[in-house]
Write a structure and sequence with these properties.
10 strands; alpha+beta; 4-stranded antiparallel sheet; 2 domains; 6-stranded mixed sheet; 230 residues
Length: 230
C-alpha cells in the first residue's frame, strides 16, 4: 500500500467561547483573543460591542476522531450558537479567532467559507493562506503565485477547494492533480443555487504537501478569470 503524503491525526479539536452577560451554571476563565485580532479576522464593530457587554465565559470544546470531526464540529457549532440564542450570548471561535455572526440554521459544512478565514499578510509575495481548516485535521492551504490585483478570483477558487477538502477528508489524500469546478465554488461560497450551478467550467491545480509548516501548497495551472469567470 502506498503511504499517504499527508498525515491524518487520530483526533481533531475545535473550541468556542460562549460569552454571556450573566453567568450560566458554571464559568470558565481563559484569555480571549484581542479585539484587534478578532477585527482582523472579520468580526464586525457591532459584534465586538456586544462582546464587550458579555464578560462571563463558558468554554465549549469539540474533540473527535478525525474521520468523524466534520460532523462533530458542525454539531458543536450549532450547539454553541443555539446556547447563544437562548441566553443572548456571543460565540467566539478561538481558532481562527473571530466572532461567529451566524444562526444555528445557517451552519453548513458545504458552505466551506464558514470554516476558515483568509490571511492576506503575504499577498505582496504572491501567497494566500487559510486559517481554520486545521480544526478538521487538515493542513492549512497556501496558494502560491497569487496576483494581488485579481486575488478575489483566487479567493473564490480557495472556497471551492476547501469545500472539496472538507467533504473528502480524510478518506482521500489531497496531494496531486486536482480540479475545482464552478459548482464547487458555489457550494464553498454558500450560494443557495449551488446545486444547479454548471460544473463543466473548472480550473486545474496541483497540490503538494510541505511537512515543515504542515501546509498544502496549491498552484493554479490556469487563470481563473479565463476558465471560470469569462
Amino acid at each position: 500500500m502506498t503511504a499517504r503524503p499527508v498525515p491524518v491525526p487520530e483526533v481533531s479539536t475545535a473550541s468556542y467561547a460562549l460569552m454571556t452577560a450573566e453567568a450560566l451554571d458554571h464559568e470558565d476563565d481563559f484569555p480571549l483573543p484581542s479585539e484587534a485580532l478578532l477585527r482582523k479576522y472579520g468580526s464586525s464593530g457591532p459584534a465586538l460591542e456586544r462582546l464587550r457587554e458579555r464578560p462571563h465565559q463558558l468554554l465549549i470544546t469539540c474533540q473527535a476522531p478525525t474521520k468523524d470531526m466534520a460532523e462533530a464540529v458542525r454539531d458543536a457549532r450549532i450547539h454553541a450558537l443555539g446556547l447563544a440564542a437562548t441566553h443572548d450570548g456571543v460565540v467566539v471561535e478561538l481558532l481562527p479567532p473571530r466572532i461567529l455572526e451566524l444562526t444555528p440554521e445557517q451552519v453548513s459544512l458545504a458552505h466551506a467559507q464558514q470554516w476558515y478565514v483568509l490571511d492576506y499578510d503575504d499577498l505582496d509575495n504572491g501567497l494566500l493562506r487559510t486559517d481554520g481548516l486545521s480544526q478538521f485535521g487538515l493542513p492549512e492551504v497556501c496558494v502560491v503565485g497569487v496576483d494581488r490585483t485579481s486575488h478575489a478570483m483566487t479567493d473564490a477558487v480557495v472556497a471551492g477547494l476547501a469545500h472539496r477538502l472538507i467533504a473528502e477528508w480524510p478518506e482521500n489524500d489531497p496531494v496531486g492533480p486536482a480540479t475545482v469546478t464552478l459548482r464547487d465554488i458555489a457550494y464553498g461560497l454558500g450560494d443557495p443555487e449551488a446545486v444547479s450551478t454548471p460544473k463543466d467550467r473548472a480550473i486545474d491545480l496541483v497540490i503538494s504537501y510541505d511537512p515543515g509548516p504542515h501546509r498544502l501548497i496549491v498552484e493554479l495551472l490556469q487563470d481563473p478569470a479565463e476558465v471560470l469567470f469569462a
